Amino acid sequence: MISLAARDIQHSWAKFVLTGLGLGLLIGVTLTMAGVFRGMVDDAQALLNNSGADLWVVQKDTQGPYAESSSLKDDVVRSIAGMPGVAMAANITYFTMQVKAVGGKEARAMVVGIAPGIAGLPGQPGHLLAGRHLTRSHYEAVVDIKTGLTLGDKVQIRRHTYEVVGLTRRMVSSGGDPMVFIPIKDAQEAQFLKDNDAIVNDRVRTAANPAFNRPAVPGMLDAVQNLQTSSRNVNAVLVRVADGWSAERVAEPIQHWKHLTVFTRADMEDILVDKLIATSAKQIGMFLAILTVVSAAIVAFIIYTMTLGKIREIAVLKLIGTRNLTIAAMILQQALGLGVIGFVVGKVAATIWAPVFPKFVLLLTQDAIVGFGATMLICALASTMAIRVALRVDPAQAIS
Amino acid sequence: MTYQTGGIRIENLRKVYGHGDTAVEALKSVNMQVSPGEVVGLVGPSGSGKSTLLKCLGAIIEPTSGRMTLGNEVIFEDGWKIPDLRTLRRDRIGFVFQAPYLIPFLNVTDNVALLPMLAGIPNEIARKRALELLSSLDVLHRAKAEPSQLSGGEQQRVSIARALANKPPVILADEPTAPLDSERALSVIRILNDMARLAQTAIIVVTHDEKIIPTFKRIYHIRDGQTVEEKGEGRSLD
User: Residue B183 belongs to a domain with what CATH number?
Assistant: First the structure.
C-alpha cells in the first residue's frame, strides 16, 4: 500500500517546507530557551568548578559569597589554614562592576581578588589561553576572553589602571558575567575603600568626636582614622581539603570553633542552582510552557486547515472504501512529518544562533532528544482534532 | 482480465427520512434491474429522489425497506445482509462522480491502482491492472501525470478507470458528463458503453444531460420517489 501522507507531502512539499520552517523557528526558540537555562546552570557549576575549592568559608549566618554579601577579616585565612584537614586556604573577594578599558571597550564583569604569585591556590584561574598568571601585588589583571579584552589592554577599576597580562576562558560568575582577576590587595581597596571626599568627611567627623579626639591620649585619633581608611576584609576564604579528608569533616571544626559558616560543594550547588537561579528557571519554564502551547496550537491549526482543504478527497476516499484507520494514519503521518521538518529546522537554527547570544547557551543532546519526543507528541495530539473532522466526513459528500 | 458479473436488481425500495410527523418519504417504491453489460439512464427533476436512490445503491445510506440484489447475492432485504459496507463499496460498486475527484497528490496510475491496493492487492499487480485500464481508456500516455495536468475529459476517463479497477459488477455514475461539452460528453458515454460491454458491468448513469439521454436504450424516470421504466432512443454513438 502506498503512503498517502508521503505522497501528499511530496505533492505539496513547498507548503510543507514553508510551514515547517515557521514551526521550526518556533521550535528553535524553544530549544534555545532550554539552552539558556542549561547555560545558567552550567555557568553556576563552572563558577564552582573553576574556583578549585572544596569548602567556602563565609561570614556567619550568611549564604555568601555569591548569593549574599559576606565579610571576613583577611587574617582569618591563617587560622583556617592551620585547621586539621586543610590543604590550602586563600582569601577571595568578588564584586561585579562595569569594567572599562582605556580607549573605550566596556564590559560587565565580576572582579575577583586573588593572592598573586602563588600558583594552584583555590580561586585562581585554572588555565590560561595566553599570557601569564598574576605575579605582582598590584595593577595586573587576568581576564576572561568574553570581556573582549586582549593582552596588553589597560582597564580602569575604580581609581587604578590595570594591565591585562593573561587571558582565560569559561571563568564566569553565576550570572554569566566574565571574570577579571586582580591582586587581592587592589580588590580589597576597590571593593571596600571609600572615595577621597568620603574619607575627608569621615576624618573631620571623627576629629570632631571628643570620644576619639582626646588630648590626653595622643595618637588615638590617628589610630581610629587609620582603621577607618584601611580595608582588611575579604568575602570568603576558599579551602581545599587534604587528601583522605572529607569536606564535611574539615568543615565541622571551622564552623564550630571559628564561628563562621562553611559550605561544601553540594551546599554551594544547592545555593547557586536551586536558590540563586530558581526564579530565572521558573521564568524560563513559563516561557517554555507557553511556547509549547503556542507550537501545539499552530500545528493543530495547520493540520486542521490542511484537512479541511481535503474534505472532498477524504469523502471520495471513504466512499471508495478506504478504512478510517488509513485516513487517520495519513493525517497523523503528515502532522508527524511537519514535526520532523520543524524540529530539524529548529535544531539547526538554535545551533546557528546560540553562539551569538551574549550569555552562554548550552544545547544538550538530551534536551534535543526530549524536545524531539515532545514535538512528536505535540504533533500527534494536535492532529487529533483534524482526525476527528476527517472521520466525521460523510462519504455521501462525494456525491453531488 | 475477469470481472464480477450479475448486474443489479432493486425491488420495492423505500426510503423514509425522519420519524412520525416529520417523516419524509424520499423513495416510495423503486424497482430497477440492470443487466451485466448494460448502461441505463436514471433521470428525474431535482428533488425527485435521484440522490437518495444513488446513496442507497451505493450502500452509503440504509433504505427503509425493499430488496437489493447484486449479482446473485441479496445485499439488502429489510436491512443490510452484508456486515461490512465499506468493503462492499470498495470491491463491488464503482463510482464515477460529476467532477472526477481524483486524488490530487497521486499520479494517474496510482489514482487507479489505489482501489486494488486498498483491497490488499500487491502494489505491482495493482499498478499493472491500472495501466491496462488506462490503456483501454486511451489515457496510458498520461499514466505518470498528476490529475491537475489532465484535461477535463482525460480526468473523467481516469475516474472511469478507477471505478473499474476492482472489477465491480455495478458502476454508479453521478452526472458524469455535466462539466463536459457535447463531444466529450458523448465520448464518456461511449467509453462507459464499451467498458460495460467489455467488463460485463451494469452501469447506472444518473443524469439530466439532454445531450446524452437519447443514447440510452433504457431509461428509468424517477418522479416523487417512484421509478418508471421507459424505452430509450438508443441513438448510435459512432
Answer: 3.40.50.300
